[in-house]
TrEMBL record:
It comes from Leifsonia soli. Residues 22-483 form the Aldehyde dehydrogenase domain. One of its GO terms (biological process) is 4-hydroxyphenylacetate catabolic process. InterPro entries: Ald_DH/histidinol_DH, Ald_DH_C, Ald_DH_CS_CYS, Ald_DH_CS_GLU, Ald_DH_N, Aldehyde_DH_dom, DH_HpaE. The active site is at E259. It is an enzyme of class 1 (oxidoreductase). Its EC number is 1.2.1.60. GO terms for molecular function: 5-carboxymethyl-2-hydroxymuconic-semialdehyde dehydrogenase activity. This is 5-carboxymethyl-2-hydroxymuconic-semialdehyde dehydrogenase. SUPFAM superfamilies: ALDH-like.
Amino acid sequence: MAQHHIPENLPDTIRHFIDGRFVDSVSGATFDVLDPVSNETYARAAAGQKEDIDLAVAAARRAFREGPWPRMKPRERARVLNRIADAVEEQDARLAELETFDTGLPITQALGQAQRAAENFRFFADLIVAQADDAYTVPGSQLNYVNRKPIGVAGLITPWNTPFMLESWKLAPALATGNTVVLKPAEFTPLSASLWAEIFRAAGVPDGVFNLVNGLGEEAGDALVKHPDVPLISFTGESRTGQIIFANAAPFLKGLSMELGGKSPAVVFADADLDAAIDSTLFGVFSLNGERCTAGSRILVERPVYDEFLERYAERAKHIVVGDPHDPKTEVGALVHPEHFEKVMSYVELGKQEGRLLAGGGRPEGLEHGNYVAPTVFADVAPDARIFQEEIFGPVVAITPFDSDEEALELANGVRYGLAAYIWTTDLERAHTFAQNVEAGMVWLNSHNVRDLRTPFGGVKASGLGHEGGYRSIDFYTDQQAVHITL
Ligand code: NAD
């Protein structure tokens, strides 16, 4: 087995946090939490059921109705949010260590995610203070203005990929706008979420404003979605789960924000800067272990440079360092959980029938245990192949040639998803034309997956509903009441 780092002072129980206190499940139920390198149970987490969600929602509701949080001035809440950001930054190394241990993400990348979590809090602290709302006068007749209000208890349901950062992407705007929250983190990776409790308490978040219930999606998550006193659900996860939540929330007419799966294309035209395109498309699918919603997991390459691209890409993929997630040299760590490992491996086997294997194709040599998958590259993948159509969410890429702009667009759009698209060409007009026509919520032209937090984040088609990011997040977590008075 690879050398394996185990953090000091690792908890062996992970509890809920309700109304300012760490508590077990009412029923006493727990579930096992595995470390993805040994696949041994290192902790037992409280398995929340309906009664735990009921307690958490009651606490959040009380804090919303009676507590100071929704009534504080934006500047006061912003100060608390900035203290949260400071605390996250101060302990970024410890956060990254725990996140890496729980998720199998390479430590250098987990550190970046911790810093990004801090930035999310700072960003929404700034935004809420700068918030402006409209007023309209009809001279001599009427004054109309927008009275923006927090909505109530927000239910936040998050996935296991970059868990701490993705939680911050919901917690920061929900809290900044004065709501109270119940967070249900992913059951594969509950470790880092429990750190929020102490961070929030130390920063001055009143009891009941932040509540955390661990547990399975079908139990704790389901109860949160169906709770009548939770008017908002912000969900990030698989498209299939999104459909279930959509249906379960329908009878309550809840506000829903859905950040779902992806199968994003990276399109490389023959006139592209091939060095930059190869660097970026490697990063696009192999960073974060390929467990990235915006992964460019289908690469479409124009025929004149197809062979050169394949040769250079596969050579680079073979040299990606796979190993212990805590080793700073590691570029691809261990996949999150043995169930997910099995799923990814089944696609690797399928790919051997559906494409031409150029790199990887199974476990990396020397890593006989743990959820390690060698960066895997398939070429000549037909558009009806399952590895072209389905989200694998691991270090596996499908490469397909094309002969014209029209064919590239058809291939790019020929899946049910529409989260991101990456275009590589030096022809400015072609780049913009492609961006206008590609069915994707987010497009990167000759660039990587980096964005300003003010931009809309979200997908189209099966990749999501609604956009978060910047003022869109503020809009989701607030009501804009229109007040009219006759002058
Ligand atoms: P998942 O859908 O299995 O689980 C996500 C969360 O939903 C977990 O907390 C889970 O417990 C909960 N859940 C499951 N069933 C539920 C139910 N019936 N009711 C309520 N909650 C339920 O997703 P995952 O495997 O944890 O995450 C990977 C997926 O997330 C991928 O598809 C990925 O593309 C997607 N993702 C999307 C974005 C984005 O912004 N678009 C970001 C990250 C991940």
